[in-house]
Design brief:
The protein has helices at about 5-10, 60-85, 110-125; strands at about 30, 35-40, 45, 50, 90-100, 130-135, 145-154. The protein is α+β, with helices and mostly antiparallel strands. The chain is globular and about 45 Å long.
């Protein structure tokens, strides 16, 4: 029987992607006690990189929000791989977001709202979290956004 979060995903028309395998010498997540630390997730969809480029040059805020949403869905997929049932997520604790930005671009927080809004949309009150939104000169594989996260689980 589908759990509450799976039902919410279905209601929203969201199908989580498969959890991506690491592309270097690290693990996708580490569970320590009641926390799951998820490694940075990039804009990978069905094995294909999306949103390659910089915010403020190649993409504007709305596209960046879509990229951040994709990162958020990849984060949730990793949490599912770590714990199985997403109903065991008690809280999204923290997101650290990195936005590949043109030097003049200053709307990183608006971009990262794409991930924050997704967490609240899926987990409700438990999806509200602390976060950082940082502009960077480049990201792995040239992606526009990378986000890691910490989740409290039962």
């Amino acid at each position: 029987m589908a759990g509450k979060i799976d039902a919410r995903l279905a209601e929203l028309g969201i199908t989580l992607p498969q959890a991506n395998a690491p592309v270097a010498n690290y693990v996708p997540y580490v569970r320590s006690g009641n926390l799951v630390h998820v490694s940075g997730q990039i804009t990978m969809e069905n094995g294909e990189l999306k949103f390659i480029g910089k915010l403020g040059r190649d993409y504007q805020v709305e596209d960046g929000q879509k990229a951040a949403r994709l990162c958020a869905l990849n984060l949730i997929a990793q949490v599912r791989a770590a714990i199985g049932d997403l109903d065991n997520v008690k809280r999204v604790v923290k997101l650290n977001a990195f936005v590949n930005s043109d030097p003049a671009f200053t709307d990183q927080p608006k971009v990262v709202n794409g991930a924050s809004d997704t967490m609240v949309e899926i987990f409700g009150e438990a999806g509200k979290h602390a976060r950082s939104a940082v502009g960077v000169a480049s990201l792995p594989l040239g992606v526009a956004v990378e986000i890691d996260g910490i989740f409290e689980v039962a």
